[in-house]
From TrEMBL:
Compartment annotation: Membrane
Membrane topology: Multi-pass membrane protein
Parts of the chain that traverse the membrane: 41-59, 79-101, 108-132, 152-173, 185-206, 226-247
Origin organism lineage: Eukaryota, Metazoa, Ecdysozoa, Arthropoda, Hexapoda
UniProt record similarity statement: Belongs to the unc-50 family.
InterPro entries in UniProt: UNC-50
Top-level division of the source organism's lineage: Eukaryota
Alphabetically ordered keywords of this record: Membrane, Transmembrane, Transmembrane helix
Keyword Transmembrane: yes
Name of the protein in question: Protein unc-50 homolog
Cellular component per GO, a single term: Golgi membrane
Organism encoding this protein: Photinus pyralis
Pfam short name (any one): UNC-50
Length: 252
């Protein structure tokens, strides 16, 4: 008998207790990409909300999925569809703040989706999938699904997306873009918060897997990030202004 989930997130609308191969699961996932009537957008929305306010509760539902569907990775593309919508909306905000033309906006959007999110995400997910399966597993009976590693990346990427591509934009032209201490303090603090979110949610994602050990090592980059934050403030380096300039120059 399976234990009842204690997470306040709603459960997915569809439940099944079958066991499929990885290829079959991928094919089923891809087939549902454009079948919006079969997606549980309410559940995906609640996941996004809790990734911002209580990310540890999201992974309780990943445990529930393992019990009911024999996989940790998502089988419903609703989260990915909403994630793509967020990327489009926040990219419009970037275009307004940076005063981009329509075609530069399209160029910027393609960069954000295929390079910043998917491209780097594939590299990060593959890195963690390989390293954790090779060096962190407690036994050879179970391994980490690559799809779950990519889900962890998407989960960890969402709060930084909201922080940097949404909230930060309201302060950029009026405050962050200037050569003041408060400008770099605010801009660098946004980045510190975003990167800390990414590291912490990544840690939660893998520490929730029973087949892994020593997952606390995933938090090692956090003190390094904090040290860099302090040094950047002392050196007068405005991370946000530097990266905004980089974003602008790469789409020229």
């Amino acid at each position: 008998m399976y234990s009842r989930s204690t997470s306040p997130l709603p459960l997915p609308v569809n439940h099944q207790r079958d066991c499929m191969s990885a290829a079959t699961k991928r094919w089923k996932y891809l087939r549902r990409m454009f079948k919006f009537n079969q997606m549980d957008f309410e559940f995906a929305f609640w996941q996004m909300l809790y990734l911002l306010i209580a990310p540890q509760k999201v992974y309780r539902n990943f445990q529930y999925r393992k019990q009911t569907k024999s996989q940790f990775a998502r089988d419903d593309p609703a989260f990915l569809v909403l994630f793509a919508a967020w990327l489009c909306i926040t990219s419009i905000g970037f275009a307004i703040v940076l005063r981009l033309t329509f075609w530069k906006f399209v160029h910027f959007l393609l960069y954000v989706i295929f390079i910043d999110c998917i491209g780097i995400g594939l590299i990060i997910a593959t890195f963690f999938w390989y390293i954790l399966n090779r060096y962190f597993r407690t036994s050879n009976d179970q391994d980490i699904e690559w799809g779950y590693a990519f889900d962890v990346h998407l989960n960890a990427f969402f709060p930084p997306l909201v922080i940097l591509h949404f909230f930060q934009l309201f302060f950029y032209n009026g405050l962050i873009s200037h050569d003041w201490f408060i400008s770099r303090y605010l801009g660098n603090t946004f980045w510190l918060t975003a990167v800390s979110y990414y590291i912490y949610i990544t840690f939660l994602g893998y520490s929730s897997l029973p087949m892994l050990k020593r997952t606390h090592l995933l938090l090692v980059p956090l003190p390094i990030v904090i040290l860099f934050y302090v040094v950047s403030l002392a050196a007068g380096f405005n991370i946000t202004y530097f990266l905004m300039t980089f974003y602008t120059e790469r789409i020229v």
